[in-house]
């Protein structure tokens, strides 16, 4: 399972980097919703990395950053997750606080898989938003990314 997650996070990192570059290339015309969405993906990944390491996050879910920081932040998130996966037991449990549901306990593997799904969901929204506005957008087919 660890190898599976490591590979999926590598693919996700590359997908986000490609999406960030596409947004940067069209920055002047990219809708605000797409910029907020990509920042949200990066913020949530950072927040989960902090929960896993029992640190306080430096950003909130919907903070917006300048586009030129996003590739660096995305790579930092990826590296922290990669390091965590290589060193920690993913079947261990983590208890965290949810504003909606209170205290929740889940395995690290479940939380990391959820993080991947969260990112893919919002990447899809961003691509749809860009496509709907007549902008160029990257393809994120798994076959293309896995090569």
Describe the protein.
This protein has 147 residues and is mainly alpha-helical. The chain has one domain (2-146): Four Helix Bundle (Hemerythrin (Met), subunit A). Helices cover 66% and strands 8% of the residues. The protein has 5 helices and 2 strands, in the order αααββαα. Strands 1-2 form a two-stranded antiparallel sheet. A hairpin with a 3-residue loop joins strand 1 (93-98) and strand 2. Helix 1 (2-25) packs antiparallel against helix 3 and helix 2 (32-53) runs antiparallel to helix 4. It starts with a helix and ends with a helix. The mean pLDDT is 92.
Number of domains: 1
Global morphology: globular
Strand content: 5-15%
Radius of gyration: 15 Å
- Could you name the CATH topology? Four Helix Bundle (Hemerythrin (Met), subunit A)
Low-confidence stretches: none
The average pLDDT value, as a whole number, equals 92
What structural category arises from helix and sheet content? mainly alpha
Widest β-sheet, arrangement of strands: 1-2
Note the total helix count: 5
CATH class: Mainly Alpha
Reading the helices and strands in chain order gives HHHEEHH
Percent helix: 55-70%
Number-wise, the strands total 2
Throw out a few tags for this protein:
147 residues, mainly alpha, two-stranded antiparallel ribbon
Write the layout of secondary structure elements.
Elements (H helix, E strand, L loop, with lengths): L1 H24 L6 H22 L13 H21 L5 E6 L3 E6 H25 L9 H5 L1
Antiparallel strand pairs: 1-2
Helix pairs in contact: 1-3, 1-4, 2-3, 2-4
